[in-house]
Structure formats: structure tokens, C-alpha cells
């Protein structure tokens, strides 16, 4: 079996335009969800092996790494990731025990907690970013065939004409 066919079962089947109940935007959204799921599935093991954290903890680290060094309030992290605050508290505690985040009280707000990544976390993310980005790129390539890419281009026609950041 050739490499492109190796993951053809992973590809979300997207019906041709006009043949299904769903409009093009919803079909494209389903394609995007399937591709995201494929990326998450592939990333789980790579993230665990390279960073020794869960996928959800990895998402927290990525979000915080893109913020100023002061970090974000816990409520902002929960809102941005769409996670329950109680689950986030547990995940932050795990990351803190691993030395990857710090928690500090917000000045003037006794209930507010600010979370930021540590230098250790920044170094780990820097060391593994090429591998992790390659994993994302390969998972997308393996899970999205010509029909899936066409569905996304139909949803975002300007996307095809934009220059690549690579």
C-alpha cells in the first residue's frame, strides 16, 4: 500500500456539493473537526513522549507560551480553551508540580490567580517545536484528501491565495 493510501480510512468523507443535506459551510466544518481530531490523536502520544504531559496540559502550555511572561488569569485560560475551571485547576497543579508553570495571586484580587510558563517550559517547547509542528503537518496531510481540502477552500476562498508563512 502506498503512503497516501495508508491513512485513507482516516479521512472524513465529504459529500460533493449539493448532494447532501448539509450546506457547504457545515460540510467544511465537519471536515475541519475531523482533521482536528486526527491531529489531536497523533499529538497525544508525541506530546506524552517528548514533554511528558497530557494533550490538555500541552494546550495550556501552548496558550501560555504565546502570552506575555506575566501569563494569564486562570479564568482567561479556562475561557480561551473552553475548559471547566475545576478541571483546569487540576491540570495547572500537575504542570506546576512538573516545574512548567507558576501560579501567583493577582494583586488586589484575593480570588484571582495568574498562571505563567516557566523558563523550563519555554525551553522544552523550543526544543520540541519542530517535531510537534511536523506531527501536526503530517496528521493533516494524512487525514485530508483532495475532497477535504476542496471543502475547506470553498469555505475560505481567500485562504488559497494567501502566501505561506513557511
TrEMBL record:
In terms of InterPro entries, this protein maps to: ArsR-like_HTH (IPR011991), HTH_MarR-typ (IPR000835), MarR/SlyA-like (IPR039422), WH-like_DNA-bd_sf (IPR036388), WH_DNA-bd_sf (IPR036390)
Q: Which residues form a coiled coil?
A: none
Any one Gene Ontology BP term: response to stress
In terms of PROSITE patterns, this protein maps to: HTH_MARR_2
Alphabetically, the GO molecular function entries are: DNA-binding transcription factor activity
Cite the HTH marR-type domain residue spans from the record. 25-161
UniProt protein name:
HTH marR-type domain-containing protein
Its taxonomic path starts at:
Bacteria, Bacillati, Actinomycetota, Actinomycetes, Kitasatosporales
